[in-house]
Structure formats: C-alpha cells, structure tokens
Fold:
Amino acid sequence: MSAHTPPAVLPGVSDKGFFVAVGVVSAAALSLLAYLLLLRTGDRDAGRLAFMPMVNAAFNATSATLIVLGYVSIKRKRREAHKRFMIAAFAASTLFLVGYLVYHSVHGETTYPGSGPIRTFYRTMLASHVILSAVALPLTLVAFFFAFRGSLAKHRKVVKFALPIWLYVSVTGVAIYAMLRAAGAVQ
Structure:
C-alpha cells in the first residue's frame, strides 16, 4: 500500500451491491419527499415546528461551509482534515434532510407569496435545488463509498460532479429560506 492510498474500509462490498443499495435509498428518500410535498397536505399548523426552517437553513449553511473547508483541505493535501470536514458536511446535510422531512410532514408545502419576476426567480431556483438534490444524494453516497473503499481514482471522478452539485444544493437551500423569510412565508 502506498503512502497515498488509504486502507480500504469496505473491501468486501461490491460496486454493484452498493449501487443497488444507493438506488433503493435514493428512491425511498425521493418517494417520501414527493409524498410529503405533493400528496400529503399537512395540517398547516407550523406553530409546533416554526423554528425548523431556520434550523434547517443553519444545517445547509454549515454543510456548505464544511464542503468548502474540505475542498480547501484536500487542495492543500491535508487528507485527514478533508475527510473530517466532508464527514461533518454529510452529517449536517443528513440532519437537514431529517429536519426538512419532519417539518414538512407536519406543515406540508410552503408556497412563496410573492409575485412577478421575483416569484419566477424563486420557482426557478427552487426547481433547480430540488432536481439537483435528487442527484446530490446518490452522487455523494457513491463518492463516500469510493473514498472509504480506497478507490481514490474513482472517488475523484465522482467528486468532480458531486461536490459542485452538493455545494449548490446547500447554498440554494439557505437562499430559499432567506427568500421565504423575507416574503413572510416562514418565521
């Protein structure tokens, strides 16, 4: 093993088996999200969880910050710091997802009350955020899989797509919250 190759953490897991698991997890997460936002209306009583949109925005901001710190660390060849920042970013994103699902299971969909060009801008950003978040989850899981398995060449190939998408989703999550907050749609 060279000095640049980390020990394989998941040596017995096949690529195919892992990709099937990622597909199942991603499909389950998307199905639950679609159910909560499109089919289940919620009770619209956000009072019980009125604090959650701000908490979720903080998780997204934390994730974005940690992603950037992880990127800077790997560019400086600080592999251990990179690993820790990226695991922490994934934890923050996971906490965001759990908080988001909990909030929307009670509240239902939040609609933007503005109109005109700002509403069009909001909807465009929201659409790109939602679509890319569906891509970010499996890409991020695959990137972690290759990193933990010690397949760094494959990890680098996936990260070229995963990192900018994950960062965009985290940053736009904060922007969406800020726009909803400014328009009075969330507290």
In short: Residues 57 and 175 are 8 Å apart (CA to CA). Residues 50-182 form one domain.
